[in-house]
Amino acid sequence: MTITKGVDLEIVEYLYSAEKERREVVKVTDRYPELSFSDAYSIQDKLIQRREQDGSRKIGLKLGLTSRAKQQMMGVHEAIYGYLTDDMLALEWEHLDFTQFIHPKAEPEIAFFIDKDLEGTNVTAEDVLEVTKFVAPAIEIIDSRYLNFKFTLADVIADNCSSSKFLIGSKWMSPRDLDLGQLGMVMSKNGQVVQTGSSAAVLGHPATSVAWAVNKLGEVGKGIQKGDVILSGAVSEAIAFEPNDNVLVHFAELGSVSFTCKSST
Ligand code: OOG
Ligand code: MG
């Protein structure tokens, strides 16, 4: 720990109030350049505890920076993880209210539904598939609390990896019944194709990405639990959207998931 106890709680309040008040804030490392990754994960834990105090419930995990392209963009060699809470779940049949966001972006993801606890430091993609009841198409909406969506790795970890909302499509399949490692993906905005990709972009296979997170959690004596929903990490770059926009993600075999953002007025 390179920062002191009082300071971490101060950072938690700083980030939590930025989210609640929908305003961008200067990144934490501008003030605390010494912030380490372990400090950042500890702040993330306390940020989730803070949400729990306000009635949120932890329901799973999300991976970030799982594609080589995104890692290169950030100049890092590691993925990151954050937590999902029940209030982050948005429903496909309800319009999203843009005024709840700061500067949101949508990402195509694969959701995993976990059927059995899994913990360890040598967990493989195969072990993950073993405990996965279903996979489903998903969209994650990220909304960094930092100015212009710019941050260092420690900053984004502390900010729960930019987590804001996520949506899950209605087609759920056993991961054994499709070629999860090479699903083609097309993302459109208002009917225009804006991104294409393959599930292989996520560390070669989305289950490898989930295994990475389990092993990382294993290092601190944690794991994933039966009932968890896990977002694999984005299959392509994130796309900014605005009021009235419709975003649709289609995965081969797995089908679609979409949302429409209502106007801000
Ligand atoms: C960090 C979160 C990235 C993903 O799927 O890669 C993420 C960010 O880019 O703001 O959720
Ligand atoms: Mg994501």
Alpha plus pi helix count = 7
CATH architecture heading: Alpha-Beta Complex
CATH topology: Fumarylacetoacetate hydrolase, domain 2
Structural class: alpha+beta
**Gyration radius, to the nearest Å?**
17 Å
Largest sheet: 7 strands, mixed
Per CATH, the class reads Alpha Beta
How far apart are the first and last residues' alpha carbons, in Å?
46 Å
**What's the helical proportion of residues?**
25-40%
Oligomer description: single chain
Which series of helices and strands comes N to C?
Answer: HHHEHEEEEHEHEEEHEEEEE
Poorly predicted parts: none
Number of strands: 14
Number of domains: 1
Report the principal-axis shape: globular
Question: Roughly what is the average pLDDT, rounded to an integer?
Answer: 96
What is the H level of CATH, i.e. the homologous superfamily? Fumarylacetoacetase-like, C-terminal domain
Query: Which small molecules are bound?
Result: 2-oxoadipic acid, magnesium ion
Strand content: 25-35%
